[in-house]
UniProtKB/TrEMBL annotation, chains A, B:
Family: Belongs to the acyl-CoA dehydrogenase family.
Pfam families linked to this entry: Acyl-CoA_dh_1, Acyl-CoA_dh_C, Acyl-CoA_dh_M, Acyl-CoA_dh_N
Residue stretches making up the Acetyl-CoA dehydrogenase-like C-terminal domain: 486-600
Segments forming domain Acyl-CoA dehydrogenase/oxidase C-terminal: 292-458
Cofactor(s) the record lists: FAD
Annotated Acyl-CoA oxidase/dehydrogenase middle domain residues: 162-265
Keywords, alphabetical: FAD, Flavoprotein, Oxidoreductase
UniProt domain Acyl-CoA dehydrogenase/oxidase N-terminal: residue ranges: 43-156
Protein name (database record): Butyryl-CoA dehydrogenase
Keyword Flavoprotein attributed: yes
Length: 605, 605
């Protein structure tokens, strides 16, 4: 019985037949790994996700974290799952061996993570935020900070958070007011309130390591005056034992539509509930240099954005597999035009419109998963490629793809989950089935870690123009190489290569047209349709990449494999014929510098 | 302070300046009414919806109906709201005076109903289903049945249901197995199980009148053997008093993602819990002729489908108004390019992408409301137009518009609610704000009363081809007349008239192209994109109708009115420039008779 979380077969195709993950084992960083250790990690992730995360996904939803005014209570299954995760080492599979991590390449660790995101995004958020936190400290912390905070995170004893938003400052971090006063002893004292802090408080682990953006009084105004601090829930003594309670306390939890398993807290810093060392304020330790906090945080944020895309893809994927399983079993109606009620009803997968909804889901979910794994592979390339030019190239391509990898899965795998409900009919709208929860959970992804609109401004306002459009040019060159390979194969690949080339041509031309007037307000008025159109073009490219990889991998070896290949071909065809054409009117609109929205004054709405 | 449920100003514009509802008072059916009585009903509906329905909308969601194994418990606020509704007569505002109803035209009653659908769809479903039930009995029941069941429904003492689906037969009514055995005394005895019965059991009223589809043994197989029965929860004595408990009992409730205020039951008929008259089976009374049940039920169903569209539009509308209010108040960020953090943040409505999300919502919600009221106006025309040709014409146009009026608001006002969440950012994803509930509630509308895919088959498989495509031709002729009037005005109206004409041209040509191969499976393989494209064209027409009506109504009378007009113009412009172009690739796909989905075998998914 195949899993309804993800397809192990597809992951292996993506990792090995397409992204050539095995070649990474020839690099020094991954020399201790092999195809066997990769497969072992993937199998283990599937098993732990299936046995320890999926079973309480619904309980996370129905029995969400609770705040009693003092403590945050999370159902015990979450703690148990995190324990198993730490025992297996999967919590830190992608972290360096130097701190006790598994040293897996990003692309393999990313594939492992997708199992947990499909099984239980609420519980998976705790270790995922912890890894992001650890990576930031590995990059910008001192050796002591790494020893004190990262190692216990790797061991599963501490979890981590990122504390950016405040009640009055969400997307606009320039306006944060949390302040960090120099205590004169090498530490700082923090005062302020942070909002939307995922995994912000709980008792699942001994300690919580908050990474907090705050302003040092007297520093520059706006984002240039933001510094980054470690603020542990409990102070850590020199020997690693826990010391005093720090003055960071939950003030309440947010009650969300979905994603309920992750305790999401409003945190007060330095409100006076505790006074470590007898002095007011939450003790904080500066990370790196003062006023560089936002830059450090974006180190974590870019990874988090791809993680959001991966989470959206994983939910889209499991919704697809569950609705496919349902459609194969549920009997209803007869073939079109068959009016003979004496014949038995057919499985609904026989109905064309049901297959349309399944094929659309497949094209979104598999396309999105391919995209986020491609990005993870670029991270590996940026970190470990033998020559500097290749590393820079991967970094530049990743830079331009990040807003797409965050936003496209969030939009289209939500749509996939809506289609998964629709395939189930009324049953899918009930809480007896999983898909309604997936839909609610997935709706978060277009909001957190930078909203959809913020991603659009990032793409058209920064990534598409920086360096004279070098990032876009690199994207077009790379995707163009794919279509050249595909065209050489003829047949459907050649058809799709032509479609992709035409769409790629519009990507750069449209950005240029948007900016041709020289007015940023006008250029960016339609940034969101631009982001969405580019997203569809990028995912079309991912589909063509997969078709090329199918071809490279030789002929079908068995019947199951033939079905796998035919399914990939059908989903690619669906994407090129039903989806990619959507971009035409979007590019037209952006290129025309349509001012309808820009010129609508707020008071007429 | 304007309502955030609906806009009373917009309703008056739609009813009077556009749909000329006042002219209906010159017809005998509505001769007792006047603009004043219409306004009185609208004001009353707004007040009752605001004071008695909106306040417990959230409680309906958090404290959903509960089944204790015997009885269904609904929060008391629902009963109180229904009492007020019956006291004001708004529960039966559109039913004939002959049975105690308010005899309002459908278009005015529809506008009144929209207030309740915006305020609290869960509670509003009880009276709405009752009205549908009453209308069916008025059309097909005997005078005794009307006296016994309809009058108490008008008085608010009974509610009604429609019992179609069974666990194994949802969209495929041919497969229902509930059977009705002739008891030999003019009554029948029913045995079977019905699923998804909204308002199926509760104790809000003295009695519940179930209208049940069942098969009389020995009748034709399939849909041709379906008959319709009245099955009251409590038998009704000749003097109108309640008699024995009938053998229809709830077996459980469905726990839904949204729309939770409406108790949705699995009902067992004749399982033996009660034995009225000492004999097994639930007592049922045949409505009309045997084996004509489906035809009668569709009398109710067509109205219910427009009601679903109206409910979707109302939720889209209130989500729009709430996110607009939020966007005017929430301060965040600065104007594009303003990097000076010392300046205060601006209301987010100043950000272009936020205005885009508001304008999109406005174009969807106001467009959808216009469409459903236009359909209600057609019902009035079909019932009361002075000459037979006009009545037939209205009926034919309504027939072709019904699948669009059901499906388009369900799709796009759900998208509006998603945008309403997005405007609120993280706050919109929490249960502290209303919009996440609207989104969950609205997701039902693409499922019940005929799924999205069923509407698509209805449009392209039946309505577009029946009578040689006469329905479509009538639609095109009617919409074409609108564009001719708009073109004569010049300016933006002329621009939009050209765009509408080009799109209308594709509506008929594409249907013809889809069917050109003569193979229904091929023609209907892309029925859903066809439905969606036609929906966008129809709503563009509705927008042009509104612009023409704005012009007809003369110049702005005051500043508030000028803003109203400018808002309508902006939303129309948004719809024509950002939305209508989406249809191009959809029509291309359908016209090409793309076989991608059709040719994908189920086993490769």
């Amino acid at each position: 019985m195949a899993s309804t979380l993800l397809s192990a077969r597809d992951l292996r195709f993506l990792l090995y037949d397409w992204l050539d993950a095995e070649s990474l084992t020839r690099r020094p960083s991954y020399a201790d790994h092999s195809r066997e250790t990769f497969d072992g990690a993937l199998d283990l992730a599937e098993r732990v996700a299936t046995d320890h995360f999926a079973p309480h996904n619904k309980a996370n939803d129905t029995d969400e974290p609770r705040f009693d005014g003092e403590r945050v209570h999370v159902i015990p299954q979450v703690g148990k799952a995190l324990e198993v995760l730490a025992e297996t080492g999967l919590n830190a599979a992608g972290l360096p061996a130097s701190v006790g991590g598994g040293q897996l390449p990003h692309v393999v660790a990313g594939a492992c993570n997708a199992w947990f995101q499909a099984a239980n995004p609420g519980s998976a958020a705790y270790p995922f935020l912890t890894v992001g936190n650890a990576r930031l400290l590995l990059a910008h912390g001192t050796p002591e900070q790494v020893d004190t905070y990262v190692r216990p995170m790797v061991e599963g004893r501490f979890t981590g958070t990122m504390c950016l938003s405040e009640p009055q400052a969400g997307s606009s971090l320039a306006d944060i007011t949390t302040r960090a006063q120099d205590a004169g002893d090498g530490t700082y004292r923090l005062f302020g309130n942070k909002m939307w802090i995922s995994a912000g408080d709980h008792e699942l682990t001994e300690n919580i390591v908050h990474l907090v953006l705050a302003k040092i009084p007297g520093g520059p105004a706006g984002v240039k005056g933001i510094s980054l601090f470690i603020v542990p829930k409990h102070l850590v003594n020199a020997d690693g034992s826990l010391g005093e309670r720090n003055d960071v306390v939950p003030a309440g939890l947010n009650h969300k539509m979905g994603y309920r398993g992750t305790a999401n807290a409003l945190l007060n810093f330095g409100e006076g509930r505790h006074t470590p060392g007898g002095r007011p304020g939450a003790v904080g330790y500066l990370v790196g240099e003062p006023h560089q906090g936002l830059r450090y945080m974006f180190h974590m944020m870019n990874g988090a954005r791809i993680g959001v895309g991966s989470g959206a893809a994983a939910l889209g994927y499991t919704g697809y597999l569950k609705s496919l399983a349902y459609a194969r079993e549920r009997l209803q109606g007869r073939a079109l035009g068959d009016k003979d009620p004496s014949r038995p009803p057919v499985p609904i997968v026989e109905h064309t419109d049901v297959r349309r909804m399944l094929l659309a889901q497949k094209s979104y979910a598999e396309g999105a998963l391919a995209l986020v794994l491609y990005c993870a592979r670029l991270v590996d390339e940026a970190e470990t490629a033998p020559d500097a030019a290749a590393r820079e190239r991967a970094d530049a391509l990743l830079d331009v793809l990040t807003p797409v990898a965050k936003s496209w899965p969030s939009q289209w795998c939500l749509e996939a989950n809506s289609l998964a409900i629709q395939v189930h009919g009324g049953y899918g709208y009930t809480r007896e089935y999983d898909v309604e929860q997936h839909y609610r959970d997935n709706r978060l992804n277009a909001i957190h870690e930078g909203t959809h609109g913020i991603q659009a401004l990032d793409l058209l306002g920064r990534k598409a123009v920086r360096g004279g459009g070098a990032g876009l040019a690199l994207l077009l060159e790379t995707a163009g190489a794919t279509s050249a390979r595909a065209r050489a194969r003829g047949g459907a690949e050649a058809e799709f290569a032509d479609l992709l080339d035409a769409a790629l041509d519009r990507v750069a031309r449209t950005a240029a047209a948007a900016w041709a007037g020289g007015d940023p307000a006008e250029a960016l008025a339609n940034a969101t349709p631009y982001l969405e159109a580019v997203g569809h073009v990028v995912v079309a490219w991912m589909w063509l990449e997969q078709l090329v990889a199918l071809g490279d991998a030789g002929d079908a070896r068995d019947a199951g494999d033939a079905a796998f290949r035919a399914g990939k071909r059908a989903a690619a065809a669906y994407f090129f014929r039903h989806e990619l054409p959507r971009t035409g009117p979007q590019f037209d609109l952006v290129a025309s510098r349509d001012r309808t929205v820009l010129d609508t004054p707020p008071d007429v709405l």
